[in-house]
From TrEMBL:
InterPro entries: Phytyl_CoA_dOase-like (IPR008775). It comes from Thalassiosira oceanica (Marine diatom). This is Phytanoyl-CoA dioxygenase. SUPFAM superfamilies: Clavaminate synthase-like. It comes from the Eukaryota. The lineage of its organism: Eukaryota, Sar, Stramenopiles, Ochrophyta, Bacillariophyta.
């Protein structure tokens, strides 16, 4: 389960990594759990070798180049991958994931961002280009002014940061000639529920915990549990998992854009 955090903390991602907003105290070195509980984020953390980064990046680029390729739920067709985010021009305004996901308690959900490409260029200030979030999904400037000063959290390829669902974060424009690519993995404890009215039963991958009825099925009040792609998948396996991926995305999108 994610540790509790304060909603006034915010993280801002840009060309050199992710920037975190916190109290005037800038020194957040220390143990990972202590940092996360105190500030609502933690990192950088070395999680992938350069060999693993190169292989994952090749797999992701290959998937994105396909006519029916998808940026989301790639763990269903590419082992170990939860979600891909390739940052072309544009930016994500400051927002909290908890504001539009409908997952509660939100302090039991966290996002792990894993960089697959190195940061390029200098840290950008300001927000140029198109905001990639819809109206109502981001925090307006008036409210942002009540929060604390941002600090930078650069990530090299293979490094990760963690941030709570309550942590305000954003991504500044990518103005380089290189596409910034990373994986976003979302983890939540078994007590988390989907609280939107008439919500679809979203599909998630069981990591640990939760009640089990047999070797192939796990029961949860709000979610259906996804099968895992075999370690050496056949063409038939890929076709089956791609259909499951499409259904999982259909449910998620219906909940995401619901009121």
């Amino acid at each position: 389960a994610a540790a509790p955090c304060r909603s006034s903390r915010r993280i801002d991602g840009n060309g050199r990594g992710e920037r975190a907003y916190m109290n005037s105290r800038q020194n957040y070195n220390g143990k990972l759990a202590i940092d996360y509980e105190e500030y609502g984020f933690a990192g950088p953390i070395d999680v992938l070798s350069q060999t693993e980064v190169a292989q994952t990046l090749r797999d992701v680029k290959d998937e994105l180049s396909k006519d029916d390729g998808s940026r989301f739920k790639l763990h269903l067709i590419l082992p170990s991958v939860e979600k891909i985010n390739a940052k072309t021009p544009g930016f994500f305004a400051a927002h909290q994931d908890c504001a539009f996901a409908g997952l509660q308690p939100s302090n039991c959900v966290l996002t792990a961002w894993i960089a697959l490409t190195d940061p390029v260029g200098e840290t950008e200030t300001g927000e140029k280009g198109d905001n990639l979030l819809s109206v109502g999904q981001y925090i307006d400037d008036t409210k942002l002014k009540t929060l604390e000063k941002p600090v930078s959290l650069p990530l090299r390829a293979g490094q990760a940061s963690l941030h709570s669902f309550d942590t305000v974060h954003s991504s500044s424009p990518n103005e380089s000639d290189c596409v910034r690519i990373g994986l976003a993995l979302r983890f939540m404890s078994c007590e988390v529920q989907q609280t939107k009215q008439n919500a679809q039963r979203e599909m998630v991958t069981r990591i640990a915990g939760c009640s089990r009825t047999d070797s192939n099925m796990t029961v949860h009040a709000s979610f259906d549990f996804e099968p895992r792609i075999p370690a050496s998948p056949t063409d038939e396996d890929f076709a089956k998992m791609r259909q499951i991926q499409k259904e999982a995305l259909r449910r998620e999108e219906m909940n995401y854009f619901a009121g």
